[in-house]
């Protein structure tokens, strides 16, 4: 063999279909060739790092990936096909595929998705096929697929979908195939299928259809022109209820047999008076066919911060949510820690395809006398002129009716006035002594105190007089008591009795020798 022949042979074998070359940037345990990366059945829990950015087809099936980490697919802007089927995905974050603007096919079959958020498929403007079969989807909300204008195939079979909102399929103007078979759908509205202008294949079999007036349009639509969308197998739309129509094909039932019974509502009692802080439950019973949806709401729109009523299924735990939350069959108005804001008019509404019925309910809130006093508004302080009425005498009935704090304040004021009088009398007596020690000719501003006997005196015994020249002169009048209002003293100093009505002990008799 010529020199170098083994090397050439090895290179030739590596380029055979069975021997794909390993790319330099291939993740560990994955197989990479051309623009395809295979990482299936490797027990991966996350998207492996190191996938070449030029990858166009990525196989991640049969792993244990439970969540798409933010930014995990961001470097893979060239992806055309992404296979994530048979993993453990529970939710799709909005914008998880925002970088995959070239993606044409996305397989999410066989995961654990229970719901799809609006915006979960944002960025997939070129997507053609979306596989969501075999998940745990319960309902499809409005505008779930709004960001998929070029989608042609939508596979939703083998889920648990029981509610398809009227605008759930909005935006799917290019959709050609819709598979809703093997779900829990009981009805579907005409509005839900209206956005599907390009629909060519519709699969609705193996659902528990409720053949009533709400499904009348579907039977008429199929008979008029919708048969072209259904294969011979798909035309067997079998009724599960009512019992008289069970196991019959919708196409074999006359329109007059598809009937509804309008709802009737019963609330007992219609008015309740509750105490502040209590909890309250009021049942709303509804009957009709199909089973009505029951909604409690406050008649007046609650302001921001006002408590909202909760609705709970009868016999069940409270459901979160406010007025407008619905429940089938019967609903329970559940209010906790009742305040004044809860008082007012409520309304229980039951609706089905046959119509709607409403019953009003009145809630009154009872306040105890103590609570009424606590909530009573405080009167504003008086702004009028200050009253000049005389204070009540200490011994009067009005004084005794005052509070302890007021009585103490009045007594303190009386004591303060008495002390002030004593201080003034002391000052006058001192000035008199000084004048006796240093006598001088009387002149302007001279002060004379005439006393005709020695002994104690008080301010109450002094009388202010002026002589012929206008000089000030104080004369002691011994006929007056030592205190104008207070206990009188005998000559030996013993008190003869308290002043009339004074509730405090009489002050001590301060003597001033003038």
Low-pLDDT segments, ≥5 res: 1-23, 308-329, 386-401, 440-454, 485-514
Average pLDDT over all residues: 76
Give the termini distance in whole angstroms: 152 Å
Largest β sheet strand count, sense and barrel closure: 9 strands, mixed
- Structural class, by secondary structure, is alpha/beta
Instruction: Tell me the helix content.
Output: 10-25%
Strands, count? 29
Overall form: elongated
Global Rg:
50 Å
Q: Helical segment tally? A: 6
Strand arrangement in the largest pleated sheet = 1-2-3-4-5-6-8-10-11
What portion of the residues fall into strands of 2 or more residues?
15-25%
Structure write-up:
The protein is of the alpha/beta class and about 525 residues long. Among the domains are: about 260-370, Immunoglobulin-like (Sandwich), CATH 2.60.40.10; about 405-514, no CATH class. Helix content is about 15%, strand content about 25%. The protein is built from six helices and 29 strands. It has helices at about 5-15, 190-195, 215-225, 370-375, 395-400, 405-435, and strands at about 30-35, 35-40, 55-60, 80-85, 105, 130, 140, 155, 165, 175-180, 200-205, 210, 240, 260-265, 270-275, 280-290, 295-300, 310-315, 325-330, 330-335, 345-350, 355-365, 445-450, 455, 460-465, 470-475, 490, 495, 510-514. It has a nine-stranded mixed sheet, with no helix packed on it. It is elongated, with a radius of gyration of 50 Å. It starts with a helix and ends with a strand.
């Amino acid at each position: 063999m010529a020199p170098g022949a083994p090397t050439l042979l090895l290179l030739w074998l590596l380029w055979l279909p069975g021997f794909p070359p390993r790319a330099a940037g291939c993740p560990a345990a994955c197989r990479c060739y051309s623009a395809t990366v295979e990482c299936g059945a490797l027990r991966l829990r996350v998207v492996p790092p190191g996938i070449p950015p030029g990858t166009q087809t990525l196989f991640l099936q049969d792993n244990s990936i439970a969540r798409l980490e933010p930014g995990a697919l961001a470097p893979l802007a060239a992806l055309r096909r992404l296979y994530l089927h048979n993993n453990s995905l529970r939710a799709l974050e909005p914008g998880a595929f925002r970088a995959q603007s070239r993606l044409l096919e996305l397989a999410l079959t066989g995961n654990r998705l229970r719901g799809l958020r609006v915006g979960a498929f944002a960025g997939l403007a070129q997507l053609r096929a979306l596989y969501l079969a075999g998940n745990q989807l319960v309902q499809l909300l409005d505008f779930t697929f709004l960001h998929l204008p070029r989608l042609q195939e939508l596979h939703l079979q083998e889920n648990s979908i029981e509610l398809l909102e009227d605008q759930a399929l909005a935006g799917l103007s290019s959709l050609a195939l819709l598979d809703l078979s093997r779900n829990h759908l009981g009805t579907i509205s005409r509005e839900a299928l209206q956005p599907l202008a390009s629909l060519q294949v519709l699969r609705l079999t193996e659902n528990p259809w409720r053949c009533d007036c709400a499904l009348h349009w579907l039977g008429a639509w199929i008979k008029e022109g919708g048969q072209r969308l259904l294969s011979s197998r798909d035309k067997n739309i079998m009724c599960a209820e009512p019992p008289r129509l069970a196991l019959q094909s919708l196409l074999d039932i006359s329109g007059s047999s598809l009937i509804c019974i309008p709802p009737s509502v019963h609330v007992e009692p219609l008015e309740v008076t509750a105490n502040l802080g209590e909890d309250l439950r009021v049942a709303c019973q509804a009957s009709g066919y199909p089973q009505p949806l029951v909604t409690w709401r406050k008649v007046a729109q609650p302001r921001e911060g006002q408590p909202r009523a909760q609705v709970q299924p009868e016999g069940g735990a409270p459901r979160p949510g406010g007025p407008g939350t619905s429940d089938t069959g019967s609903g329970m108005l559940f209010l906790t820690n009742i305040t004044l804001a809860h008082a007012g008019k409520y309304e229980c509404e039951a609706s089905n395809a046959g119509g709607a019925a409403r019953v009003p309910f009145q809630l009154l809130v009872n306040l105890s006398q103590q609570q009424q006093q606590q909530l009573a508004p405080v009167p504003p302080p008086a702004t009028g002129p200050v009253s000049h009425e005389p204070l009540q005498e200490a011994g009067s009935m009005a004084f005794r009716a005052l509070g302890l704090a007021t009585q103490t304040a009045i007594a303190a004021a009386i004591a303060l006035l008495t002390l002030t009088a004593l201080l003034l009398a002391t000052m006058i007596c001192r000035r008199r002594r000084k004048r006796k020690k240093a006598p001088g000719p009387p002149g302007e501003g001279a002060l004379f105190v005439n006393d005709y006997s020695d002994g104690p005196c008080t301010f109450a015994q002094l009388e202010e007089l002026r002589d012929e020249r206008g000089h000030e002169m104080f004369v002691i009048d011994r006929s007056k008591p030592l205190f104008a209002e207070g206990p009188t003293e005998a000559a030996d100093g013993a008190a003869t009795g308290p002043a009339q009505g004074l509730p405090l002990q009489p002050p001590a008799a301060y003597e001033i020798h003038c």
